[in-house]
Specification:
This is Transposase. The protein has 10 helices and 15 strands. With about 425 residues, the protein is an alpha+beta fold. It has 2 domains: about 190 residues, no CATH class; about 210 residues, no CATH class. Helix 6 crosses helix 9.
Length: about 425
């Protein structure tokens, strides 16, 4: 099992300059390597027996460029540009590996036939992280001793260990990254043991969750959590700070100070949202052995007029966090097709057509419940085929009829 623990660093002013210099040099190298790959692609994508009607590059056709050819050229790079000798070699190789992964995601489709976007050239400040692939090994560039992280060619940096590293976990690599409020290190921890998943025949509690914009989610037993709307609540403050930024002379020291204030506000909102997601995920995993959710097309929904609200609740990030927490606890999660969950009646199965404005499900069979509650019941009742569970959140719970939705209030960061 792999975990990532992030800790804040307390570098000196000289070390901060070194870290920023490394980021800028690695950005330039990344752009140069990407230019090599794009040049090779441009010169070789046309068939040998015909030419383009628009334009055609001239000159010798270069050899195919990949990670190995570019990594072998690091020695020549250091001879031409001596400042690269001050960067740990493994960090430069990891920088080229990042480019190689982005390049392959663009050209090679995954198992679903989807490909990533074309790699872009990085502008100043885009690369604000670099990785030491080995930690605490004889030839490693990073060594953690107590609360001191010793980095090759940088020196000893104080680490604020706000929580201990779990026993039995081995630190595989360390990534140094910059955020709006300072420098951090992310340790990738590995444990050889794998949590044992709960046997299917021992599942005692199960639920379906329906996510939404009026309520963050509603469970199959009628509990709901309100949407915190962290971004919308911070909009007025953000707008005021961004107006101040627009009045500054771009590139000046006052501009940089105000830009840092705006970045810190965005970082604060993101941290509030992430903490809320973890609180909800832990509450669900502690309460249920099986959680059924909808496989929504979130990217498509984010292109509608509700884009701001959808991106504010961040369903995709929450579902990833929930699944990760469930794996660590040995619980089960299952994504299902969301079609028909809001329209079909959870009591009799009859289709009850309604618009998004109608928030109450009322069926001729006498079932009158909240629309989201009905959807959560359908997720559990009709979509969990092959699992030994009932349709109402557990093995011993009967289906509720004509009941009000209860609310669960979580204590979140202000």
């Amino acid at each position: 099992m792999l975990l990532t623990y992030q800790y804040k660093l307390n570098p000196t002013s000289e070390q901060v300059v070194t870290l920023e210099t490394w980021g800028e040099l690695l950005r330039r190298h990344y752009n140069y390597a990407l230019g090599q790959r794009l040049d090779w692609l441009t010169r070789t994508r046309c068939q040998i027996d015909r030419c383009s009607l628009v334009c055609e590059p001239i000159g010798d056709i270069p050899d195919k460029t990949d990670y190995y050819t570019q990594a072998s050229g690091l020695k020549q790079t250091k001879e031409l540009f001596p400042e690269y000798k001050n960067i740990y070699t493994d960090c430069q190789q990891q920088n080229l590996m990042r480019l190689d992964k982005a390049w392959k995601r663009w050209l090679v489709p995954d198992k679903n036939g989807k490909r990533g976007g074309r790699p872009r050239f990085k502008k100043r400040g885009d690369i604000c992280s670099f990785t030491f692939p080995r930690v605490n090994s004889p030839k490693a560039g990073a060594h953690l001793t107590g609360s001191i992280l010793k980095l090759s060619k940088i020196g000893e940096v104080e680490v604020i260990l706000h929580r201990p590293i779990p026993e039995g976990f081995e630190i595989k690599q360390a990534t140094i990254l910059r955020k709006a409020d300072g420098w951090y290190t992310s340790f990738s921890l590995e444990d050889k043991t794998v949590p044992n998943a709960l046997p299917v025949n021992e599942i005692k509690t199960a639920t379906g969750i329906d996510v939404g914009l009026e309520k963050f989610l509603t469970t199959a037993d009628g509990q709901s959590i309100q949407v915190p709307q962290y971004y919308r609540k911070a909009q007025a403050t953000l707008a005021r700070q961004q107006r101040k930024l627009a009045r500054k002379t771009k590139g000046s020291k006052n501009y940089q100070k105000q830009l840092s204030k705006v970045a810190k506000l965005h970082l604060h909102v993101a941290r509030q949202r992430k903490e809320f997601h973890y609180q909800v995920a832990h509450w669900l995993v502690n309460s249920y052995d099986l959680i059924v959710f909808e496989n929504l097309n979130i990217k498509g929904l984010a292109r509608t007029r509700l884009a701001k609200s959808i991106l504010d609740v961040a369903w995709g990030a929450f579902l990833q966090i929930m699944q990760a927490v469930a794996v660590r606890r040995g619980k089960h999660t299952r994504g299902v097709d969301p079609r028909g969950t809001s329209i079909d009646c959870s009591g009799c199965g009859e289709r009850v057509e309604k618009t998004l404005a109608v928030r109450v499900h009322s069926c001729s069979c006498g079932l009158v419940i909240d629309r989201d509650w009905n959807s959560a019941l359908n997720l559990l009742k009709h979509k969990s085929v092959g699992l030994p569970i009932s349709g109402c959140g557990g093995l011993e719970v009967a289906q509720p009829v004509k009941q009000q939705v209860s609310e669960v209030n979580l204590r979140c960061a202000p």
